[in-house]
Amino acid sequence: MSQESTSPASAAPISPEIIRQTVAAYFATIRAMDADAFVATFATDGVSHDPVGAPPHEGHAAIRQFFEGIAGLFDVCGLTEDQVFVAGNGAAVKWTGHGRGKNGVEVTFEGVDVIELNDAGKIQVVHAYWDPAPVLSKVRSS
Asked: Where in the chain are the domains?
């Protein structure tokens, strides 16, 4: 007899409204550049693959360090949800980012986040599909 998986894919169904609220909170915290609120959207053992292909940020401490590292390069930065597609216990979100680096350079960039929630409505896993290299290059230049 095997145990049931506790992965987000097999968790109890979450209402689309809860998914939308969590996704909205996640993006609002980025726009507010609020590390505490951003981290609070994640499960304590949540994982962020931002961007996909880079080493994952696992747990609240690593997620906070990642967020503060990026936010520290900007005077203003935020992502706006262009389209949100809710399915299962998560959502795929097409977003557009806008920011102004501490060096005064304005940037616009786009991507897709695939977000899976746990049964408590917290983010368990984020897969962020975007290329940060050109953005970081611009905001790090003098």
From this structure: 13-140
* Topology of domain 13-140, CATH: Nuclear Transport Factor 2; Chain: A, (3.10.450)
Give the C-alpha separation, 110 to 55, whole Å: 21
Confidence (pLDDT) at 82: 98
pTM of the model: 0.90
At 77-111, the pLDDT tens digits run 999 999 999 999 999 999 999 999 999 999 999 99
Q: How far apart are CA 82 and CA 79, in angstroms?
A: 9
DSSP per-residue string spanning 66-101 = HHHHHHTTEEEEEEEEEEEEEETTEEEEEEEEEEEE
Q: Are 128 and 109 in contact (CB under 8 A)?
A: no
